[in-house]
Amino acid sequence: MRKRKREATALATARTPSLDLVFDILADQRRRYALYYLYGSSDGVATVDEIADHVVSLEEYGDSVDDHRLHVVTSLQHMHLPKLEDAGVLEYDPRSETVRYWNQPSLEEWLEHAQHKELS
């Protein structure tokens, strides 16, 4: 990751995300599924493949499993993980394809509620 990007993430992590940002993050089902996985992991670290497997297990799809998984991985890498990184919720390293989730209590309050409603 670039040093400038890491500094921006560190600054964003130090602040509490606004309610508008929290709801923007949670508005997309695939981002919620990724966050459910990261929030539920013991250390908040995962690979893109681990997150993709979790997302695929929760989504309904008409394609073959391999085609759908490829679509999920691509959307995570190019859209969802960078957006979550820009929001200061996680750090994404595209070279190693690893993700580190940063605890955000204001986000987690709504994430827990969404998970309960969506997956119960």
Describe this protein's structure.
With 120 residues, this protein is mainly alpha-helical. It has one domain (28-119): Arc Repressor Mutant, subunit A (Orthogonal Bundle), CATH 1.10.10. It has helices spanning 3-14, 19-26, 29-40, 48-58, 65-86, 105-119, and strands spanning 45-47, 90-93, 98-101. A hairpin with a 4-residue loop joins strand 2 and strand 3 (98-101). The protein is globular, with a radius of gyration of 14 Å. The termini are far apart.
Through-space gap between termini: 37 Å
Q: Give the spatial strand order of the biggest sheet.
A: 1-3-2
Q: Based on the coordinates given, report the CATH architecture.
A: Orthogonal Bundle
Structural class: mainly alpha
State the order of secondary-structure elements, H for helix, E for strand. Answer: HHHEHHEEH
Specify the number of helices. Answer: 6
CATH H-level superfamily title? MukE-like family, C-terminal domain
Largest sheet: 3 strands, antiparallel
How would you state the average pLDDT, rounded? 90
Number of strands: 3
What is the third-level CATH name, the topology? Arc Repressor Mutant, subunit A
The Rg value, from CA coordinates, equals 14 Å
Q: Percent range for helical residues?
A: 55-70%
Low-confidence stretches: 1-13
- CATH class value: Mainly Alpha
In total, how many domains does the architecture comprise?
1
Shape, please? globular
